[in-house]
Amino acid sequence: MRTGIISIVGAGPGDPELITVKALRRIQNADVILYDRLVNEELLGFARPEALRIYCGKAPGRHSMPQEATEHLMVEHAAMGKHVVRLKGGDPLVFGRGGEEALTAAAAGIPYEIIPGMTSAIGAAASAGIPLTHRGIAASFAVVTGSRCREHGAPVDWAALARGVDTLVIYMGMANLGEIRAQLIQSGKSAATPVALIENGTTALERTVTGTLGTIDKLAAVMKISNPALIVIGEVVNVREQLLGLQQTVRAQIG
Ligand code: SAH
Question: Is the pTM of this model over 0.85?
Answer without folding.
Answer: yes
